[in-house]
Each structure stands twice: as structure tokens, then as C-alpha cells.
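User: quick one - fold this with nicotinamide-adenine-dinucleotide bound?
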Amino acid sequence: MCFKKKIKLYLGDAPGALRRRLRSYKQVFVVYDANVEAWLPKLNLQEKPVYPVVATEENKNIKTAYEICKWLLEQGADRDALVLAVGGGVTTDIAGFAAGIYKRGIRYANVPTSLVGQVDAGIGGKTGVNVSSFKNMIGLIRQPEFTWICPALLGTLPEKDFLSGSAELLKTFILEDREAYEDAVDLLSAGRREPDAYAALIEKAARIKARIVGKDEKESGLRRVLNLGHTYGHAIEWYQHVHGDEAPLTHGEAVAVGMVKAAGLSEERGYAAPGLASKLRDDFRRCGLPVDFPCPEQDLEEAVSKDKKAEGGRIQFVFIEKIGKVRIHKL
Ligand SMILES: NC(=O)c1ccc[n+]([C@@H]2O[C@H](COP(=O)([O-])OP(=O)(O)OC[C@H]3O[C@@H](n4cnc5c(N)ncnc54)[C@H](O)[C@@H]3O)[C@@H](O)[C@H]2O)c1
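Assistant: Sure. C-alpha cells for the protein plus nicotinamide-adenine-dinucleotide:
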């Protein structure tokens, strides 16, 4: 299916069907997450030139992108080549960025293997790398040829990474689909982890993200709703990094806490009816997600006010009116 701005998704194929999506590409170079190596034969990629990436935030840097470019050059990748990124958000972000700078930009496509990747990172064309501890400071917005979403690949995803993705799944439904939100809470709180059980929800969430990005690729307006929960989520991540927290919340977990905060602020401003924040707290808890700040809230203000400065004094904050409807307003 195709949206404005060429956001192309292939949804629900079995692993073996990837081969047919690649038929029209003469040269395919696979950049993959070393943790998903076992999937390569099932995806029929074992015969292609492959480059493993160690998927950590520390490794998501310009040096790794440079090494990928060097490898592409050694392999003889020409201007018509396709870089196929197979992995979670770290891998698709780095590989898409490397493709964007190699020979001034060659094509790339994403095969996201994490839940974060399938409902968020693999869709929408944001690619990039970190600069020391600052996330995604160098990057490009450049759409992939396609994003190929195969829920079966989640079968080997560790529980903590599944939970991280589940927060992004819930976030997407809070934006515009109450029914899907309740279905997701039911599945998650029942402890269900079979990828098949989530296939329809992943498809819905992927389509929502693609539709939003298709309308506002460069984040000049609508795309900002995707930042729901991220103002305080990022502040938590920053705080944990600065304080060398040994068991930090994952990105998704931090966003879950940020969404509960956003619900509380929405009630305080009268944008939402009383009870929204306690509903989210209850739902998220049942899903195994954290709901409380891991540090005193005032300690996060430094990070939040940095964001404020970056946005000229007042943050465009995503408030929740009710599940399925949000609004952007200055904080
Ligand atoms: N480009 C965007 O629009 C966008 C959006 C959201 C997040 N991101 C970025 O994505 C990253 C987070 O994504 P993530 O949570 O996928 O992180 P990740 O790529 O680090 O994957 C999480 C962990 O799961 C492992 N993994 C992935 N798929 C697996 C599988 N099928 N089986 C076994 N292990 C598997 C990885 O090796 C890693 O250890 C961050 O760097 C974030 O900045 C980008």
C-alpha cells in the first residue's frame, strides 16, 4: 500500500516471502543486527553480502555509519544498490543513514525485527546516529523504498524489548484508536507474547504512523503528535544517563511514565476529564509498564527546561483529551 510521500509498507508476509519483494533490485546489501543472525536464512538473505552491526546506543555513531559506507565501497555497491536494514531501531537508523550519505544517497529498505521497529522506528524515514550521549543528533529524513513488517520475527525478541515496544504500540493507539488501545491492553496484561496475536494490532499501528508521516514528513505540525510521552520520557532517559543508572528504564518504559504525566497535565488544564491519568496508570501497570518517575520529579526540570529553550521558551506538548484523541499545546 502507498500513502502520499511514498510511505510504502508490506504487511503480514511470512519470512520466506521477503525474496519476492527484493526481485526488482539488482544489488542488495544487507546490514543486520548481530542478534538476529539466525533469521537470515529464513529470510533467504544468506547468499547476499551481509554486514553485522552490534545494536547498542554507544555503537549508533558516525564511525559505524562510516564503516558501513567503507564496506559498501569495497563490495562495489553502485548508485542503484539497495541497502536492506534488518534489525531493531538502532540498526535501521544507522543503516538508513549510511545509505543516505553513501555516494550522496542510495536506496534503502527496512525489515524491522523489534516491536519498536515494526510500529515506529522502521517507518517514516527518520535515520541518524548519536553524538556522544546526545541521541540522533546527526541524521536525515529520507524515506525507505519500503518497510517490510513480519510479526513472526518478534518470536526471538527479549521480554524487556517487547515491553519497550508495547509502550510505543499503546502510544500510537492513544493518538487515534481507542478500540485498538483496549485490545492491546487486554493482550499485554494477559501476558500474551505470541507474535501472531499481535499481527493485526501491529498492522493498525504501522498504518497510523505511516498515515501521519505521509501528511507531515518533516514534522512541521501533525507528526509532532508522535512525541506523546516523549518530553518527560526523554528527560528520564537523560537523568538516568547523567547519573549512570545501572538499570535504567528502556526508552518505551520512560515514554510510558511520560504518557501518565501527560495525562495528569491534561486533567490539570481541563483538557481531559478527571480519571484519565488513573486509568492509564492502572492499564500500564497491568501491562507490566512503569508509571512512576524513577527520581524526584523536580530533578527532571533541568532537562525539560533545556527542551523549552530549544523550542524558543515553550514546548509544543502533546496533551491527551481522551484515549483516541490528543491535542498539541504549549506547555
Ligand atoms: N527513526 C525513528 O523514527 C525512530 C523512532 C523510534 C525509535 N528510534 C530509535 O530506535 C532505537 C530503539 O529501537 P529498538 O528498541 O528496536 O532498539 P534496538 O535496535 O537496540 O533493539 C533492542 C534490542 O533487541 C534486539 N533485537 C531486535 N530484534 C530482535 C529479535 N527479533 N530477536 C532478538 N533480539 C532482537 C537488539 O539486538 C537489541 O539488543 C533507538 O535508537 C531510537 O532512537 C528511531
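One thing worth noting: The chain has eleven helices and ten strands.
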